[in-house]
Amino acid sequence: MSISETAPASTGALWTGRTLSGVIVLFMIFDGVIKLRPLDIVTQTMVPLGWSADANVARMLGVIGLISTALYALPRTSVLGAILLTAYMGGAIATNGRVDNPLFSHTLFGVYLSVILWGGLFLRDPRVRALIPFSR
To answer: How far apart are CA 66 and CA 55, in angstroms?
Structure first.
């Protein structure tokens, strides 16, 4: 099935996708901004996770997250942004798993966010619907 053959999303599906994507974008902007400053709570919570308390490390993570989020928010680069954000979430999953944080509340949080971001992109982008057809 080509992109031109993909059925357009209904208005409800399109707005649901935009809403889901908006939630991810807002969350990631918040996450990036608190790492750019960086707030004391950010550097203090990085140490038990095995990261350095160095403010530059927090800033680097914030920049990576914000750039990936900007790419996800722009329609032309949304697929690349989704891939980069999924990788970013994978790092968070690995970090939380390595320090044996609780599974459902901490470790799998990146999985939850990734499902929401790809679900939002699926509903709003016909290219993704063409790549991942759930029905024929």
So the answer is: 16
Angle 78-98/109-124 helices, nearest 10 degrees? 170
Predicted local confidence at residue 136, as pLDDT: 59
**Phi and psi torsions of 127, nearest 5°:** -65, -40
Q: Which residues of the chain have pLDDT under 70?
A: 1-6, 135-136
What one-character DSSP code corresponds to residue 4? Answer: G
Q: Considering only CA atoms, which of 32, 36, 58 is closest in space to residue 45?
A: 58
> For the chain, where are the alpha helices, taking DSSP H only?
11-36, 40-46, 55-73, 78-98, 109-124, 126-131
pTM of the model: 0.90
Q: Residue 120 has what pLDDT?
A: 98
**pLDDT computed for residue 104 by the predictor:** 93
Calculate the CA 15 to chain-centre distance: 18
Helix (H, G, I), strand (E, B) or coil at 2: coil
Rounded (10°) CA dihedral 53, 71, 82, 76: -170
